[in-house]
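Supplementary Methods. Inverse-folding protocol.

Structures were first reduced to a discrete structure-token string of length 231. This string, shown here, constituted the complete conditioning input.
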């Protein structure tokens, strides 16, 4: 297990929910945190929560459903003039549950893939080269254990795509100090998971930190379960 003190993590969707918990967990390890929300000012709660830790915090914002906004988000991070050592692609979107699972429309498919896949790929592409050049990096792509639910077909398919992207990137990182892995946070009581989920959002810790704490020659292109993993 490595030490994260002094490292910098960028966590998408960290203004609330799972991302907020991950930000808190990394901060407890001494990691500086770049918090992301959809709109300007949406990160204030998370930034306030992190004040108890002796770290540096930063806030960036932007919708992930639009290519121009994603590129602007990347520019905001680059303007901080920091090395992004850890990237958590946490933000995600789930469209409506359709009992008649053949009724998902193209707009639902497109929106889901823009946020869950296209934005994730673009952020990986923006920050992975610098990690490789410096010889250190951790990328954690949030996936899902969802299966056998065509009622949520766009979401399920998007997470399959996340897994495939992670697998393919991992092959190129074998001989580097950069590791890219998948994290299933579990079914948690969040805006996306709903009030009937099995676990409170706080249950994502400490397991969600596991793929950030691995050694430079540790797991690559592997699946982590936040609920089942113990540090």
């Amino acid at each position: 297990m490595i030490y994260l003190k002094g490292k910098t993590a960028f966590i998408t969707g960290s203004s609330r929910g799972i991302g907020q918990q991950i930000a808190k967990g990394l901060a407890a390890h001494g990691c500086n945190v770049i918090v992301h929300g959809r709109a300007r000012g949406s990160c204030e709660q998370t930034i306030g929560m992190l004040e108890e830790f002796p770290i540096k915090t930063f806030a960036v914002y932007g919708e992930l459903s639009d290519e121009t906004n994603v590129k602007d988000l990347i520019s905001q991070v680059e303007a901080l003039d920091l090395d992004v050592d850890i990237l958590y692609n946490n933000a995600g979107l789930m469209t409506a549950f359709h009992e008649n699972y053949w009724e998902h429309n193209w707009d639902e498919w497109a929106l889901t893939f823009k946020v869950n896949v296209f934005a994730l790929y673009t952020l990986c592409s923006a920050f992975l080269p610098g990690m490789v050049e410096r010889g250190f990096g951790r990328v954690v792509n949030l996936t899902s254990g969802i299966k056998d639910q065509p009622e949520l077909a766009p979401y399920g398919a998007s997470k399959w795509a996340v897994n495939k992207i992670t697998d393919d990137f991992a092959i190129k990182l074998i001989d580097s100090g950069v590791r890219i892995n998948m994290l299933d946070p579990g079914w948690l009581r969040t805006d996306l998971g709903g009030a009937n989920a099995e676990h409170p959002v706080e249950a994502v810790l400490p397991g969600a930190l596991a793929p950030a704490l691995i050694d430079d020659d540790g797991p690559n292109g592997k699946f982590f379960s936040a609920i089942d993993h113990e540090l």
